[in-house]
């Protein structure tokens, strides 16, 4: 991970006040939602997706002027104008070969760590899914969350 420029940062769970990055994001989210609600009179839930999309599309100094969306998907998010002709192809700031190399490095890192942990614990490090599908790095997945009553 260090070879990819990734630094792990640990913080106290359930205590966002102790993590300045989370606290700043929560502040930006709350400020944007408040402005949206005051402007339209609708509830904050109606604006959550749009605000999240806007915040993920803001360039960050810590990401070298790129957006969170760019770092995750390797391309800029296209936001069509309201009066525009429709969706156009977004320009890709990364070379596809660089993206493939990064994904291969991540896959190798996962395999190295899973084989080491499996050898030490005797447990196979594969996720269990009802369909037998095993997610790999680079796969797009959607998380489904249910609220316990």
TrEMBL record:
GO terms, molecular function: nucleic acid binding
**Biological processes per GO annotation:** DNA integration
PROSITE patterns xref list:
INTEGRASE
Q: Which residues cross the membrane?
A: none
Protein origin, superkingdom: Eukaryota
Domain named Integrase catalytic is located at: 1-76
For the region Disordered, what residue ranges are annotated? Answer: 111-130
Question: What is the protein's name according to its record?
Answer: Integrase catalytic domain-containing protein
What are the top taxonomic ranks of the organism?
Answer: Eukaryota, Metazoa, Chordata, Craniata, Vertebrata
